């Protein structure tokens, strides 16, 4: 078990301990603070990563990269206005793959290669469904505020069972193909147990925030620093933060403006998740290209 994962487990149980002192309202407040810190920060350096990815293509200027990135963000926001159900569905699917890709980015490629991507997607969606199943009513309310459609007809327990069964098949397959993977099965099952307890005990936002920060954002941030600067160190983290600061600050200002305008309206939930989706789509694409390197 790596040092980073040990810290993730420690942080998760610390978060569970904190839930005994915080009511749901304070859990939501602290959860949002975590999301606004490392959660937003880990996606604030996408343009720097894109620049390095395109160093061999001198015709692609930094200005063109910025315009392309902004175009994707604006199109995502536009999609939430015109076709919110489609945008939300794409957000969940892309986020699921993005989470699974981060967790299993060191998984070896066994033919066919597309199977690895299918496994990563299945794992990430399973994690999201595991979170949803303990907070069904709240999830339904948030979805309704976004797409104005009652989704009580969706059986989240059934979907969780289906993705869980497929996930078990993947575990069997990769255990057969790789001795290294077989040694990690017990460890990975422990992580799933930690996620289950985490999601069940905490509120929806608190459980999501703890997973998103300590199991996704910080590990992703470390991988990005390694890619940009060759290795992870505190000095390299300062370089990363310095280059990401302006983009991070702009994102925070955007969220604060939305909150100040719509804080007393249910539409804020819809706008907040729409905002997250708008910056998630290009970020997931950038990280996908980075891992290919």
What features would you describe in this structure?
This protein has about 290 residues and is mainly alpha-helical. The protein has helices at about 5-20, 25-40, 45-55, 60-80, 85-105, 115-135, 135-145, 155-175, 180-200, 205-230, 235-260, 265-290. The model has no long low-confidence stretch (mean pLDDT about 85).
What attributes does this structure have?
single chain, mainly alpha, 12 helices, 0% strand, globular
Number of strands: 0
Indicate the overall shape.
globular
Mean pLDDT over all positions: 85
Largest sheet: none
> How far is it from the N-terminal to the C-terminal residue, by CA?
25 Å
- Rg from alpha-carbon coordinates: 19 Å
Summarize the structure.
With about 290 residues, the chain is mostly helical.
Helices and strands, with pairings:
Layout: H1 3-19, H2 24-41, H3 46-53, H4 62-82, H5 84-103, H6 114-133, H7 136-147, H8 156-177, H9 179-201, H10 204-229, H11 234-262, H12 267-292
């Amino acid at each position: 078990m790596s040092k980073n994962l040990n810290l993730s487990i420690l942080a998760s149980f610390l978060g569970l301990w904190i839930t005994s002192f915080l009511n749901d309202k304070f859990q939501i407040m602290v959860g949002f603070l975590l999301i606004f810190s490392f959660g937003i920060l880990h996606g604030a350096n996408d343009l720097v990563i894109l620049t390095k990815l395109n160093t061999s293509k001198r015709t692609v200027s930094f200005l063109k990269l910025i315009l392309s990135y902004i175009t994707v963000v604006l199109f995502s926001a536009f999609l939430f206005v015109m076709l919110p159900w489609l945008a939300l569905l794409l957000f969940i699917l892309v986020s699921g793959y993005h989470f699974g890709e981060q967790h299993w980015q060191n998984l070896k490629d066994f033919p066919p290669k597309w199977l690895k991507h299918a496994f990563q997607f299945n794992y990430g969606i399973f994690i999201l469904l595991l979170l949803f199943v303990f907070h069904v009513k709240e999830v339904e309310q948030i979805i309704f505020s976004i797409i104005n459609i009652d989704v009580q007809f969706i059986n989240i327990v059934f979907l969780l069972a289906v993705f869980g069964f497929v996930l078990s098949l993947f575990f069997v397959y990769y255990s057969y193909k790789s001795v290294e993977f077989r040694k990690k099965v017990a460890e990975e099952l422990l992580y799933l147990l930690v996620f289950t307890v985490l999601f069940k005990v905490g509120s929806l936002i608190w459980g999501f925030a703890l997973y998103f920060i300590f199991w996704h954002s910080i590990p992703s941030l470390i991988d990005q620093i390694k890619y940009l600067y060759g290795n992870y160190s505190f000095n390299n983290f300062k370089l990363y933060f310095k280059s990401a600061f302006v983009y991070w600050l702009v994102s925070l200002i955007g969220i604060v403006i939305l909150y100040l305008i719509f804080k007393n309206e249910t539409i804020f939930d819809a706008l907040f998740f729409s905002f997250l989706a708008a910056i998630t789509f290009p970020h997931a694409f950038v990280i996908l290209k980075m891992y290919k390197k």
